[in-house]
Amino acid sequence: MPRSVKVKVSSRYQVAVPRVARERLNIRKGDRLLVDIQDGLLILLPQPQNYAERLAGLHRDVWEGLDTTAYLREERDAWDASANG
Question: For the chain, which residues make up each domain, given as ranges?
């Protein structure tokens, strides 16, 4: 895919998703896209059918070698301490 593909904004402020993008991202008729604006960029992302499945396993490396049960216990203790002033 070229670095960028030109699209035209219609009189109703609509744009067509180019075929190459649809094919690479497996976007089908009726799919929903998320619109994100970051640093002057308009970003379209396919909306996941299931957010839990989509996010499962992301950033696994952050938790490697860490006792997650102990970490959660420490966080909960800190929440309790801050709530009790």
Answer: 19-83
